[in-house]
């Protein structure tokens, strides 16, 4: 989520300079839609305590379904309620943050890596 938040802030600044306050607000909303759906996904995944492969798969599918429903609901709400929104900024930030969420598997937490290397995590 830290990377999604950073990308959202960068897009807010960029679109704020290009399109004004509505551009910045649209970027913020695009990031929020993605982060809220990612949080819903995480909430479903974190509740799973089983140990079977089928249980893991079913939980992942349920979490992904919840994420998609939350995404489309929030996208629809923003697009219908925020009439002055900058669609390119909103959708662009949303897509960027969704891609960042998908790439989370490739990002390591430097603090944990350092602790493991130093033998602090035993």
Structure notes:
It is elongated and about 50 Å long. It has one domain (2-118). The protein has helices at residues 2-19, 21-46, 53-81, 87-102, 110-118. Helix 1 runs antiparallel to helix 2 (21-46) and helix 2 runs antiparallel to helix 3. The chain is mainly α.
Can you describe this structure in just a few lines?
By secondary structure, this protein is mainly alpha-helical. Helices cover 80% and strands 0% of the residues.
List the helices and strands and how they pair.
Elements: H1 2-19, H2 21-46, H3 53-81, H4 87-102, H5 110-118
Helix pairs in contact: 1-2, 1-4, 2-3, 2-4
Label this structure with key terms.
122 residues; 5 helices; mainly alpha; 80% helix
């Amino acid at each position: 989520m830290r990377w999604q938040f950073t990308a959202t802030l960068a897009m807010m600044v960029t679109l704020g300079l290009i399109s004004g306050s509505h551009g910045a607000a649209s970027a913020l909303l695009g990031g929020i839609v993605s982060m809220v759906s990612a949080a819903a996904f995480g909430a479903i995944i974190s509740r799973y305590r089983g140990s079977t492969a089928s249980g893991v798969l079913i939980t992942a599918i349920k979490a992904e379904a919840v994420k998609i429903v939350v995404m489309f609901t929030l996208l629809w709400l923003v697009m219908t309620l925020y009439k002055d929104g900058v669609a390119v900024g909103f959708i662009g930030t949303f897509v960027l943050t969704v891609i960042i969420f998908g790439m989370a598997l490739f990002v390591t937490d430097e603090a944990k890596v350092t602790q493991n290397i130093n033998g602090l995590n035993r």
